[in-house]
Each structure stands twice: as C-alpha cells, then as structure tokens.
Amino acid sequence: MQASSYKPEEHLTLPDQPGVYRYFNAANELIYVGKAKNLKKRVSSYFNKISGLNLKTKRMVREIQRIEITMVNSELDALLLENNLIKKTQPKYNILLRDDKTYPYLLLTKENFPRIFQTRKYIPKRGTYFGPFASVKAMNNVLDLIRELFTIRTCKLDLSPYKIAEEKYKVCLEYHIGNCQGPCVGLQKESNYLKDIEQAKHILKGNLGVAKSHFKQEMQKMAENLEFEKAQKLKDKLILLEKYQAKSLVASPNIANLDVCTIVTDEKNAYVNYLRIKNGAMNVSKNVELKKKLDETDEQLLLTALIRLQDQFQSDAKEVLINIDIEEPIEGLNLTLPKIGDKKKLIELSLKNALYYKKEKALLKGLNEDKKDRVIRQLQQDLSLPDIPDHIECFDNSNIQGTNPVASMVCFLNGKPAVKEYRHFHIKTVVGANDFASMKEVVGRRYKRLLEEDKPLPKLIVIDGGKGQLSSSVEALKELGIYGKMPIIGIAKRLEEIYFPGDSYPIHIDKKSESLRLLQRIRDEAHRFAITFHRDVRSKNAFGTQLTDIEGIGKNTAEKLLSHFKSIKKIKEANETELIEVIGSSRTKALMEWIEKNKGA
C-alpha cells in the first residue's frame, strides 16, 4: 500500500475509495489518523461543514497542513490499518485506550520437550504464545489444569538428544511425585511427550471439546485392554476437565466462538466491556475506558475499542455481539445485536460489567476529588483563612555568596501544581546577598503585573523564609495598595514554623497533617524551581565570562552567541559562516583564533 500526499485545499481530488487518512501539522507532526468508507466524502466533511464541527475538531482542522492517504480494499481493512497506525504513533487527537498494563501470556517453547510457562515478555522466536490473559488468576487456573492433566516438565534443562545421551542429568522431585516421566534420563520418548503437548495446545486455545474426546477414546482403549487402573486415571482427568469447563461456562456449550463488546458513555468518557467466548466458556473479560477527543459517537468509540481489544487478545471470532445499533454495517465484520436467547444473556452480562466499571471509575474520581477538596479545606481551617485557598503562590530566593541572585514563584491550583503559571525572576534592583530586599522586589513585580493585566490574585501567598522575608513581602503589598486583600504567610524551614504578619509568635500545624504536607510540598517545589534556575544562570554566566575574556568579544556579543548557539560546545562546533551571520567577520576572526587555541580544552 502506497501513501499519497495532499494539501488541505486539495481534498476534493481525493479518491472515492475506502482507506485511511492522516493529518499533519506545520511541524510535520502526525496529529490524527482516521478511516473512511469513502476517502473523498469523509475528508471533505472536515472542510466543507466547518461551522457544524465542535470546538475540538475545529482546532484540529486549523492545524492541518498536509494530508496523507492510503487506499485499501475494504472498510474493514481501513479499520484494521487505522488501529495499527494509532497504536504505533498515538496522535494527540485520536482516542487512546486508558490501559498501560503489561498482560501475561502462556508460552509454549520451541525446543526439544517443549515447556509451558507464564511470561510478560513477547518474543515470537521463543515459541508459541497463548493470551494475553486479562486475569492472572484465570491464566494460573489454565496452567494448573494442564499440569494436572499432563506430565509436562517444568525444568530448564537442555534436553537435546546428545545432552540426554551424555547421561549428565538425574531425575528430580517432580519425577518422584509423578508430575514428570523423566525425559532428561531417557525414560520418556519425545514422540510420546508431544502427544500431551498437542492436547495441551487445544486447551490453551479454548478447544476443551477436543481434549475431552481424546481422554474418552484413550479411556475406552484402556478398558478394552482390561487396563482398568489406567482407565480410571483417565476418567479422573476427564472429570477434572468437565469440572473446569462447568466453572467457566457462561452460556450454552453449543454457542460457537464469538466476542461480546458493550459500551456505556457519559459526557467525557466511554466505558467498554469485552468478553471472548470459546465453546460457551469465557476466557477473557476486560474493561477499558476511552476519553472522548473529538465528540465521537458511541458507534465510533465501540468500533475503536473492539478492533484494538481483538488485536490485543488475538481474537479469531467470526461473530461479535454488541449492544448498540450500527447504522452502516462494515463488510467483513459480523456484528450482531441479539434480542433473545443465550446471546442476549451474554450482552446483559457484558453490559452489567461495563456499568459496574463506569460506577467504579466515578466513585474513584469522587474519592480523589473529595481528598483534594478536603486538604485545602483543612488548610483553610488550620490557618483561619477567609476563603478556600484553591489558588496558592509561593516565592523563594536563590543565590550563592551574592552571585547571580534569582527568585522563583510556583502556583498551585486546587492543591495541584499549575506548571504553566510558574515564574522565574532575575533580581534587578538589589546588589549582593540581600534576601529581604530581593523578596520585596519579586513580590512587588509579580503583583504589579497581575494588577496591570487585571488577573485574579491568589487566595494565599506563601513566602519561603521567616519573619524578615515575610515583612519585606508585606512592604511590597502595601506599596501596591493590596495588603489585606489576600492572606500572606512565611514558612521557616527549621521547625516548620508558620508566621503571620504582625504576630511575634509562629503557629505550628500538626506534623502529620495533610495541610502541612501540602505547604511543605509547595515550599519544596518553589525551592527546587529556584535552585534549578540559579544553576542554569550561573552556568550561562560562566560561559559568558569565558567568552568575554577573548579580545574583541564584549558582554553583548557573548550574549548574542549564547542566545543563538545555547552553549560553548555548540559555538566551538559552528562553522565560520554561521558565526559571521551572528557576530560579523572581525569578531568571528578573533573567536576562531581562540577556538583553535583552545581545541580539546
């Protein structure tokens, strides 16, 4: 399949064929992958009816600079290709399944006397994988059943013929308790061992009927040969297999292999349950959550989840039961909305799981929101604040022996860091290491700017420091005429003492309190942000000093070079033409001589 490229205005020239379309932005980043029964109609719908699109879709359309398409033979092929591309590239406007777990498989190894064991690593050359299993318990049940029915080795020995012939191995405890027939010492032929493996494969595939028929035939043979003890052992295994099947049976055993996929939605998310049924037995049950990106329909969300889950769990089902009407059937995908009988019961079972999952997610979200709200309410109570402190700003200074003084401000909204609101400050009016004057400067600059831009003031200001820094900050607020309009506190590191303006004595919040932990987290974040900025400034200034030592290179030229090339290393790697473009030929000559002299330095 060959990809063809188009500009957005060329969408009318697209073919009337099924396929996949890909949207790229100005930075040539893939932002959306979609499938279509008719590429021309589907892609044109984004550009011809833009007034009818929701805000998110309009935003995406504005970003589109280039379109790529791949034509396929059918809508199902388009659906499968779309899934593969989304899984591989994860564009920002596509729906993604919220599920980052690594699922376990059962691996049948490709070696002499193959082994069966669980693994989470998928390396195809190692053998045949069965799964993945959504439940570790379900996987262990299958593995335990196989080990009770068959004598399959669990050791890691190399059982190639020449190794066995060397007679270096001895039988282990598994042999003595009857779980292994001793292939390591030549007591079991590989042809006999592989008969058990063949039956185990049927069980791993969910074909329990084949294994049952095998045990019945073998039991009959033993009885005819008057080997009643062996016949009884086979009968016990048959009963064990039937009990396992009865436990996992969810519908009539006459139901062929099929998948069940149901969906329930709310305003922002979709919740999907997926069941895989083989011979009436459920061997996969999986819930997933999808976040709506472009106001997708229930039909789009269900198909997206179904294709990805079938791919993930390697389904070969010929029929899929669903709980919603699909307006336009997809050729090659047999979707059924059952109204009565066992299939209807399967839909009800799956839907019950989907609804429970939705309820569970809502409860968890509510608990998280309650916790967040509880902590800031507790902080309001502990500090006797007039309003809930859902907007907190914290300041910290950083300098070493008065060099490169800087400050930082971090912002927390609803108890969480709002990184986009963080700010750095170069100290402009203070000479030397004067933390009090520096704090006054940055607090004054911050709130003067907010007042000029008519932006909301915080519900609480936190100053990293004791009474001195707090008093300086209060002066800045008084000069702006906003002192008293918002609470301000200082937090001293040593004893976690909290100071209020005008109070001689600090207050102490319980060390185990969630509200104190929130204040500590905010203070530590401000400190980290200030230290990181100070380190960067100090490093940059050191580079600048190194450059200004060159004759003919002054402070302004050094700043130009560092602004353009970002580091001394990149300046040294630049060619003469690049340097001339930034600082001119005469200064470039002096710089090149210095670079030549300091090669390897």
UniProtKB/TrEMBL annotation:
Where is the protein found, in the record's own terms?
Answer: Cytoplasm
Name the predominant localization: cytoplasm
- Alphabetized GO MF terms: DNA binding; excinuclease ABC activity
Chain ranges of the UvrC family homology region profile domain: 264-477
One short Pfam family name for this protein?
A: HHH_5
One Gene Ontology cellular component term attached to this UniProt record is: excinuclease repair complex
Q: Which InterPro entries match?
A: GIY-YIG_endonuc (IPR000305), GIY-YIG_endonuc_sf (IPR035901), GIY-YIG_UvrC_Cho (IPR047296), RuvA_2-like (IPR010994), UVR_dom (IPR001943), UVR_dom_sf (IPR036876), UvrABC_protein_C (IPR050066), UvrC (IPR004791)
| GIY-YIG domain sequence ranges | 16-95
Q: Which domain of life is it from?
A: Bacteria
Question: Any idea what job this protein has?
Answer: The UvrABC repair system catalyzes the recognition and processing of DNA lesions. UvrC both incises the 5' and 3' sides of the lesion. The N-terminal half is responsible for the 3' incision and the C-terminal half is responsible for the 5' incision.
Q: What is this protein called?
A: UvrABC system protein C
Source organism phylogeny: Bacteria, Pseudomonadati, Bacteroidota, Cytophagia, Cytophagales
